[in-house]
Amino acid sequence: MFEYAPAPESRDIVDIRPSYGLFINGEWVDSLGDERDKTVNPASEEVLSEFTLATDADVDRAVSAARKAYESVWGRLPGRERAKYLFRIARIIQERARELAVLESLDNGKPIREARDVDLPLVAAHFFYYAGWADKLSHAGFARRAADGGGWADPRPLGVAAQVIPWNFPLLMLAWKIAPALACGNTVVLKPAETTPLTALAFAEICRQADLPPGVVNIVTGAGATGQALVSHPDVNKVAFTGSTEVGRQIARSVAGTGKKLTLELGGKAANIVFDDAALDQAVEGIVNGIFFNQGHVCCAGSRLLVQESIEEELLDALKRRLGTLRLGDPLDKNTDIGAINSAAQLEKIRSLSEAGEQEGAGRWSPPCAIPDKGFWFPPTLFTGVAQSHRIAREEIFGPVLSVLTFRTPAEAVEKANNTPFGLSAGVWTEKGSRILWMADKLRAGVVWANTFNRFDPASPFGGYKESGYGREGGRHGLEAYLDV
Ligand code: TAP
Question: Which stretches make up the Aldehyde dehydrogenase domain (predicted)?
Fold first, then answer.
């Protein structure tokens, strides 16, 4: 049985303070209230640190600092000057990547291999990418007529951006939000999720290291109430939210009629569609990556496998063999494939939806897998014989659970894939290029991957249809969310 004992050499490279204040106007400050909470390592339930639950008055201080920085410095700085700061931040992230990857793994439960090879390189890449745009905004398609009518001028920023992010990719979601906001000339107040505040707090130090002017980035920790105070603050011009559809709806209601610009990146229930002519071994790797990467805590996870009926048995045999090789355990072990579930609450949600799957008649299967005594864990799980009406086919589980459905024709695959209130992503596995193009056209999903899955690039726009939200992050399109166009 695996006993949790973080590799000492990994643990030693991170410096976690016993408690954190709020990062406002370039300084660590105490809250005006006295509420605090603890963040734990989900692999061991060991307390990592204490953080502040910011009050409405703290949020007000942070928004005022962001406003002042916007009016006096950042909103006036030429793009090429803003770019220098963003490049500097990107380079510091690269230099500190090992430390940040360990910190992310400790606070979130994700395997260090993923934090090191996926999250951190993408975080740096986002800052590099948007640094490159900062002095080219008038070439991004959003230029406005200059006041004298004689030419084109840079588009205007929006002002103060309120940004609220979830716990599944804490530092990467921060980068998706802060990099384009700063590149466009906005200042920000960001609230990380209550179960994963540590890398956002480390990022506050990076802002200081980069000599970013005070108030340009402010980090307020807290629970949902802090997020609510932030998005409904009257002096905020832009709200960017990534999280659940339920909270997204509440935010949309609170922002309605205020004139604040809003982007929502919400949940998903992606179909990963495998045709009988697909390269099976590659498809199996894509399915595993699609749903078991980051324990399935991925908004665009391929949580519904749609397999063509004629290859169902062959594919499932190969998939089960592959699942038998996945290693669940210590997130800081470089050989670990499946880390810890981020919180007890999320584990409970995954358990209860999986039980509903069994009760509704689907067949449940997991490979033999030792579950550690402490911490929050869930084995890789497959459900076969899933009907479209089952809850596990309709609701977002956000865990390492795959629901398998079958289809006979491409039209049926499209119909089933689109039969969901979400529309964030989809995958198609086939040898036929024409079929890929046809499917991509018919699928109501913001991203369609062909013969791959979960591939991200800062230059690619990302976002959903239907209940998966609106607005795009990433790429040139991601600039529009932070400009007055
Ligand atoms: P949520 O519970 O919605 O929380 C997201 C963030 O909002 C957290 O920081 C949360 O704070 C805060 N929050 C909670 N209630 C709020 C309120 N009333 N007003 C303002 N902020 C509030 O989601 P989660 O459980 O952290 O994340 C999982 C969900 O995010 C999944 O549905 C997933 O699909 C979605 N997600 C989507 C994407 C994209 S790009 N579409 C990416 C990642 C995740 P606390 O953590 O303190 O409660």
Answer: 28-484
Tell which atom from ligand 1 comes closest to the C-alpha of 231: 20
User: How many CB atoms are located within 10 Å of the residue 233 CB?
Assistant: 20
Contact assessment for residue 277 and residue 312, using Cβ atoms and an 8 Å cutoff: no
Looking at the chain, the number of H-run helices and the number of E-run strands are 17, 21
Nearest to 118 by CA among 339, 375, 346, 329: 339
Residue whose pair of structure tokens reads 């370039």 in the numeric block: 26
Q: What's this model's pTM, rounded to 2 decimal places?
A: 0.96
Q: How do residues 229-253 score in pLDDT, each as one tens digit?
A: 999 999 999 999 999 999 999 999 9
Q: Which two tokens stand for residue 180?
A: 């384009």
9 is catalytic: no
Q: At 326, is the pLDDT very low, low, confident or very high (cuts 50, 70, 90)?
A: very high
Q: Which two structure tokens, joined as six digits, stand for 415?
A: 């119909």
| β-strands 401-407, 304-308 pairing | parallel
Of 104, 114, 194, 265, the catalytic one is 265
CB atoms within 10 A of CB 197: 26
Ligand 1 site, residue 266, Cβ cutoff 6 A = yes
Chain centroid to Cα 318, Å, comes to: 30
Residue 462 Cα distances to 218, 425, 447, 454, angstroms: 25, 9, 7, 11
Report the pLDDT averaged over residues 361-370: 96
pLDDT digits over 69-124, tens only?
A: 999 999 999 999 999 999 999 999 999 999 999 999 999 999 999 999 999 999 99
The ligand 1 atom at the shortest distance from the C-alpha of residue 194 is 47
Q: Are the C-beta atoms of residues 164 and 262 closer than 8 Å to each other?
A: no
Would you say the CB of residue 299 lies under 6 angstroms from ligand 1?
yes
Instruction: Identify whether the C-beta of residue 290 lies closer than 8 Å to the C-beta of residue 453.
Output: yes
Ligand 1 contact via 467 beta carbon (within 6 Å):
no
Residue 3 C-alpha from the chain's centroid: 29
- Residues 184, 162: Cα–Cα separation, whole Å: 15
Percent residues over pLDDT 70 in the chain: 98
> What tokens appear for 237 in the block?
């011009």
